[in-house]
Amino acid sequence: MAYSQSPPLVPKEWRTGEANTSGGHARDPHAQSDQRIGIQPKKPSIHAHSSSLTDDWAASSRPSIGRRMFRTLTRFFIAVLIGVGAMLAWQSYGGAAREMMVARVPTLDWLLPVSATKPPVVAVTPPASAQQLESLASNLDSVRRSVEQLAAKQEQMVQNIATLQAVEEDIR
Q: Best label site of 2, 38, 42, 57, fewest CB within 10 Å?
């Protein structure tokens, strides 16, 4: 047979549904071989496995090796990124973080690394001069006098309220 275009993909018997000439009954499409490409079609079958039901379930519920490797690598890279971020943050803010930790929990001071660039912080007050002490003392005296005046005025108000209440009861 010579074709001017591409050959048909389905034999003529399959397209028209003609009866088989040798047996007188309808031709089985699964039994037909495609002689042009040399393939024998196979009938679909249900395979019964000899393994147990749990083995089949375990094999089917498990992700593929590629997927498991991808998940493992993803988790590893996330852990590495968290570690790198923590290291960079400690380099940037380590001194302040150490001081905060020591201030809150002094017993953990030995766990935290000592910075080689900065000496440990020691609470030292600069020496106060006599003039600064005198000015603080005079300010303290003036505040004490103001508090005494307020207390005296409060006592006077309490007495005034008591007299007003007594006058009010007399009027009734």
A: 2
Q: For residue 159, what are the CA distances in angstroms to 39, 62, 170, 172?
A: 120, 89, 17, 20
Q: Which two tokens stand for residue 127?
A: 């020496």
pTM of the model: 0.29
CA angle 77, 81, 86 (to 5 degrees): 150
Given the structure tokens 């393939």, which residue do they identify?
Answer: 39
Rg (CA), the chain: 49
| pLDDT tens string 45-84 | 565 555 555 555 555 688 899 999 999 999 999 999 999 9
Distance CA 25, CA 31 (A): 13
Write the secondary structure of 54-94 as one string of H (helix), E (strand) and C (coil).
Answer: HHHHHHHHCCCHHHHHHHHHHHHHHHHHHHHHHHHHHHHHH
Cα separation, 63 vs 71, in Å, equals 10
Quick one: residue 24, left, alpha or beta (phi over 0 = left, psi -120 to 50 = alpha)?
Answer: left
